[in-house]
């Protein structure tokens, strides 16, 4: 398991692995929004939390098809499927690797982009906390979508259509946490729901994704 | 004699062929009676004539949700017992359910404009219907994208299971996210909260009509899918010979 995680991380970080691409995409989304809605600071700071969450979600989406597609092309997915490691564990490790190379950098960079969008000071801890808690669920659900579409030639667009509706609850609770943290109202409820979604996906989605992979490798 | 006998495509075709004309006739009768009767009801004292859109809006919304439930059950039957008719029925129900969702959304918008003064509001009910529509689109697109019919049935079945969980979650998440304009349940068992029987009875007829319409459409589409599958098998055999 460790070896697989290490391999995936190295593949992602080395040249051509697309590491940093989603980070750059996140930056571009957050740069484009002020052009679209106007540079008014007050307005920006009101919508900043939502933009950061939507941006994180979109940039996470961008790299999803890489989770299984490359391994499927060169045949290493078949090897992994026949390896002694259960397929469920393999899916979980690959989603973890995706989170470490996409989700975690997004979490770390989000405060900097928050400055760009005039995010009010009180919101920063809640932004980082909610993204840390929520993004693993995005990677996990994305792994399920990637497993569904792995054998398809033009899976990329379909993947977004399948995965985005699944992201709705995570987005709602994540953005709600930041908004409530900003207003100083009670934050525990959305945060607990967000954590609940993350843990439930961590526990259950590997089984669904592994089942989809088995069908696609048949 | 058990219901599983109808998992045999031949038996299914024969039985559905017998009941289908009756269901179609019933659907036509009930929708026409329900909608015409609904149209002839007196205007509501507050909403005026716009109240009559309820006879289209509520049954469509009802069937939009029930179609997804039916797809969920059919997908489970396919994943557990591997009856092909079940998978094809789930496939057949999806576009019908999507259109029902769209009808509910559009009639809701037309109704919302004079009542709430807006075509669209990010109200929990409206939003969760939009999300449901997106789920339908993804499901249909996945069926279209995969060539091998058995893998397609497996993968869409999985998507339907996971999607159901998240559709429910979204329903409660949007409740949490925004309080809405939409009224609560239209049909309540508690007396006093119910709408007047002038509107209630045509609504029941219309709901029955939409249910039968859905049933008829799904049966027709399932029969078409079975025949298409047969045709493909025949052509493949021809090709090999």
Estimate the helix proportion of chain A, in percent.
Answer: over 70%
Overall form of chain A: globular
List the uncertain runs of chain B.
189-193
Distance separating the two termini of chain B: 39 Å
Number of helical segments with 4 or more residues of chain A = 9
Biggest interface, chains and residues, is: A-B, 29 and 25 residues
Give the helix proportion of chain B (percent range). Answer: over 70%
The oligomeric state of the chains shown is: heterodimer
The coarse silhouette of chain B is: globular
Give the averaged pLDDT of chain B, no decimals: 85
What is the tally of beta strands of chain B?
0
Order of helices and strands of chain B: HHHHHH
| Percent of sequence in beta strands of chain A | under 5%
Mean pLDDT rating of chain A: 86
Question: Total number of β-strand segments of chain A?
Answer: 0
Number of spatially distinct domains of chain A = 1
Q: Evaluate the radius of gyration of chain A.
A: 18 Å
For the report, how would you describe the main beta sheet of chain B? none
Subcellular location (chain A): Cell inner membrane
Keywords (chain A): Cell inner membrane, Cell membrane, Cytochrome c-type biogenesis, Membrane, Transmembrane, Transmembrane helix, Transport
Family (chain A): Belongs to the CcmB/CycW/HelB family.
Pfam family, one (chain A): CcmB
Report on this model:
The complex is a heterodimer of chains A (218) and B (241). In chain A, 81% of the residues lie in helices and 0% in strands. By secondary structure, chain A is mainly alpha-helical. Chain A has one domain (2-216). In chain A, helix 3 packs antiparallel against helix 6 (87-116), helix 6 (87-116) packs antiparallel against helix 7 (124-148) and helix 7 packs antiparallel against helix 8. The model of chain A has no long low-confidence stretch (mean pLDDT 86). Chain B has one domain. Chain B has helices at 9-40, 54-81, 84-116, 124-145, 149-177, 197-240. Chains A and B meet through helix 8 and helix 9 of A and helix 4 and helix 5 of B.
